[in-house]
Hints:
This protein has helices at about 25-40, 45-60, 70-75, 95-110, 120-135, 145-150, 150-160, 175-190, 205-215, 215-230, 245-250, 315-325, 335-345, 355-365, 385-395, and strands spanning about 10, 20, 65-70, 80-85, 115-120, 140-145, 165, 190-195, 235-240, 260-265, 280-285, 290-295, 325-330, 375-380. The chain is an alpha/beta fold. A hairpin with a 6-residue loop joins strand 1 and strand 2. Helix 10 crosses helix 11. Pyridoxal-5'-phosphate (PLP) binds near residues 122, 239 and 381. Pyridoxal-5'-phosphate binds near residues 95, 122, 238, 355 and 381.
Amino acid sequence: MSIVKVSEKGVFGEGELTFGGSFVPEPLQKALDQVEEAFLRYKDDPDFERELDYYMHEYIGRPNPLYFAERLTAKLGGAKIYLKREDLNHTGAHKINNTIGQVLLAKRIGAKRIIAETGAGQHGVATATVCALFGIPCTIYMGEVDTKRQELNVFRMEMLGATVVAAKSGNRTLKEAVDEALMDFAQNYKDTFYLLGSAVGPHPYPLMVRHFQSIIGREARKQILEKEGRLPDLITAAVGGGSNAIGLFYPFVDDSSVKIVGVEPAGEGLETGHHAAPLNVGKPDIIHGFKCYVMDDAENCHSIAAGLDYPGVGPEHSYYKAIGRAEYAAITDQEALQAFLDLSKTEGIIPALESSHAVAYAMKTAPNMSKDQIIIVNLSGRGDKDVAQVYELIQRT
Length: 397
Ligand SMILES: *Cc1c(COP(=O)(O)O)cnc(C)c1O
């Protein structure tokens, strides 16, 4: 029996304090019911699993290594640090694990069209990629402000054959992109599949995204047992919506000897309000149709890492915090930037700014642990996409 208590409708926890669920208008609920039905029908289907395995291996390049960062470990003088190399996946991050899984589901139920929302563009690119792979028409909603900030990602999606629609209401950023995508989905769900990018949103998305991302933790568990003959003492990952983190954490959640720490972006500092750390500074509320910890002032949401810039967080992380199964630390923009530079110099691996938050936490923590202890860090993505931004940041300081 797992310690994770979740209802059939994706409600985590029991009693007063629960998370997740689905709080949406009726037309949208119909669309979600259709996704749930598809997920339940195929998730354990041997034929579907074979097809998923095939693409995980042949297209994404899995399994990726669990790499012992020997120079980083020696430099810090404490626990052994292993990096789960999601950065080596095709397209350079973990997001493709989920987009492949969901596109295969969409294909099974005969969807003629795929839609998705994107903030900085990373999930849009991962979705456009798998739609190109299967020749399915694809529409990506993106806030108009974001389309200007991330021009090159818009071009990348278009090169892959996607149509990018700029959301022009409100602040013209991610929230409006989500609203427009949901409206499209409610209207067109009979032939359209909404491919959601993180372990957030109404049921069944958090459970479905966990299902497809858990390959990270399953591989890491097997790999550490092969290499060290035992489980790690600490596993850690950056938390935006929480998909790469839940992917690593879930297969270890019932191993009580394994400490679990998610790392939220403290941005300019938790005390400034300019962060994206709802599990550190926030309270339970409903956002985008589900219940989770939400930042006190979502308007101030900020992180150096565009992929972490979300005012809510996955319901399962909210639940792990509430029951004390995981801790959620916070790392500032400055600390993440330093870790980005340090890992590059020490190991020849340039991490994504998102992943750099988890690297920074491991670098802070390892020296306080003994040399026979083990940390696994999820290196969720590669940092090539961030080099221009880091160049500008360094020029300015
Ligand atoms: C999008 C992204 C994240 C944050 O998303 P989660 O759903 O929290 O995993 C983290 N790392 C990278 C490299 C990303 O692209």
